[in-house]
# Entry
Amino acid sequence: MVFWRGRREWRVVRRGMTLVEVLVATVLLGVGVSGLMLSATLGLRNQLRCEQRTAATFLAYGKLSEIEAVGPHMWSLSRPTSGTEAQDDVTYTWSVQIVEQGVGELYDVQVEVSWTDARSGGSVTVQTLLNDYEAVTETPPGSSKRKSALDANEPAPGR
# Structure
């Protein structure tokens, strides 16, 4: 404290902050920090959801690739149409629907992957049309059945 003499009296000049100013600054700092913590928590939650959706999308496209490699007709005859896979404490349930179209060897293939965890869940659906060269059920008279899907791009015998 510094004492100084004004015109008629001695006055006390204080330096520093009062208790009320310290309390107001502490409250403002607390509100700001709690806002930052809330936004960090929301960011981490969104990151987890994004990772789960990405894993489900990779699983769906992986199943679609397997169906494409084997052929939709053979898949529907010999492979399961649903199943589960666990990754990072999350269980993903997948299901496959294969519907033969009325034209040629065309199949509508739909793969759906759903998941649930302690806080949330979701689903991803991938759908496409696949041509299955192996699914020829009847052969026209005088022609032979192809041996594999790779033979589909080769010209017919005798040409």
